[in-house]
Amino acid sequence: MKFDAGLRRVVTRVLAVAALVLQMPAFAHDVTPFEGVTAFTIDTKAGGFTRHTLYLRPTKAATTPPPAVVMLHYLRGRGDDMADLIEASRIVRDFGAWVLLPDAIAGNWNYGSGSLIGGVSALANDVSFLSDLIKTSITNYGLDPHRIYMAGYSNGGLMTMRFACDHPEQIAAAGNVARVTMRSSDAKACKPTLPTPFLMMNGDADPVSTYDGTKSFGVTLTMSAPATAAFWAQINGCAKTPVGSELPDTIADGTTIHLDTYSGCTALGEVDFYTVRNGGHTWPGAIGFSPELGPTSQDVDATSLLMKYLLRYSRP
Fold it and tell me: Which residue segments constitute the domains of the chain, with CATH numbers given?
């Protein structure tokens, strides 16, 4: 029957994605130390849960309020996993920014309609938790409220988009790597009051976050990566047609990178969308991924690229 065949395709895809998730990078639950970088952790109570956050900060006290980026980990990861994966200590050392790395409940961010697979994590109000985390960190540590940013990898990228939908006033810019495929239902519910500058990056051979989106029985469940970038460009009042460019192919790793820049926005809100051709579900420039997640481009250092983009922006 047609229905049974369609259902089998959906179930097969869910099982395939679940298998790939198990191949996500695993790291020891500590942070590789960098000279001049201090790490500490804070546990707080929020919504009936104990929430754990790792902070990375410059050891030397700042003379002016420092910027900070809230960095959200992948599915079944933790903040310290994410710190080692992207070498978050480099952000502190090279850019003088604080890095806040909170843990999701059960490793799954409750970003919206597609996050219910997380079981107990579906009971967590992560939008409220992250909002409070930003507020208390500004108050307790003297962070610059005009230069707070958020970025995420995979599941954390979806949570970043959700937060930008609900609380754009709290972040000056955002980044999303390897999950630039927004669920259609979440896009319909996204009504931000302000634009959010966004850097987005997705491999076109990503086996987890399908670049061209997903459909079931003719209904679009997940928007394509280009459509998601265009969605945020529209929110930000940018030109409908992006300007395309090719990045230098510096490493012969089988990948190349194309950049679509949406500019001419009505306010601060440029969207930079990077397509990693033949790229997988990975963080460009990083190492340690399972081959099942596809190629990792070494043509760019996504950590540095992201921070240079974010620090261009400040909220009034």
Answer: 2-310 (3.40.50.1820)
